Amino acid sequence: MKVLVLTGAESTGKSWLAARLQQRFGGVVVGEYVRHFIDREKRDTCLGDIPAIARGQLAWEDAARGGAPELLILDTHLLSNMIWSQTLFGSGPTWLEDELLARRYDQHLLLSPEGAEWHADGQRCQPEAAERWRFHEACRGWLQRHQQPFVEIVGGWASREEKAIAQVQVLLGR
């Protein structure tokens, strides 16, 4: 099983690209638990919600890992939970990083805000480009500090898809 993570700021195409990659290569996509949580609770999140959101994300990820698909595509993982918690609330559960580092991820595609226009969807909260760039830089910094495999994906939608496909082909040895 190869585990691919799509990470980065809002409106950079993670969900769209996850679906496109699944169409092309098969495998299993794990979505963003926080979206499910917000839809279910019908309110904005607070610091006290972060553990439940993170545990929900891990439960979805672990259930998918249990099926051992050839390709597991994660629309997000705990890195986003950690950075959002810091961004929105100034702190977060310390166990998130330990849980994140305890799992193996074969490749991260860090989707850049460059060339990606922000789209409101009722749950997104970073309409300013500077905010999305700070989130992007926080993702990149964490991946670098922890020596996680990643490739930055930049450009228009067609270019993003082309670059991501090439990365998955390498990942799968095709």
Roughly how much helix do the residues carry, as a percent range?
Answer: 40-55%
Overall 3D form: globular
Structural class: alpha/beta
N-to-C span: 14 Å
- Total number of beta strands: 5
Topology as a string of helices (H) and strands (E): EHEHHEHHEHEH
Average pLDDT, to the nearest integer? 91
Give structural notes.
- This protein has 174 residues and is of the alpha/beta class.
- Helix content is 52%, strand content 13%.
- It has helices at residues 14-25, 33-41, 50-66, 78-89, 95-101, 129-145, 157-172; strands at residues 2-8, 28-30, 71-74, 107-111, 150-153.
- Strands 2-3-1-4-5 form a 5-stranded parallel β-sheet, with helices on both faces.
- The relative contact order is 0.22.
- The model has no long low-confidence stretch (mean pLDDT 91).
Summarize this entry quickly.
With 174 residues, the protein is of the alpha/beta class. The protein has helices at residues 14-25, 33-41, 50-66, 78-89, 95-101, 129-145, 157-172; strands at residues 2-8, 28-30, 71-74, 107-111, 150-153.
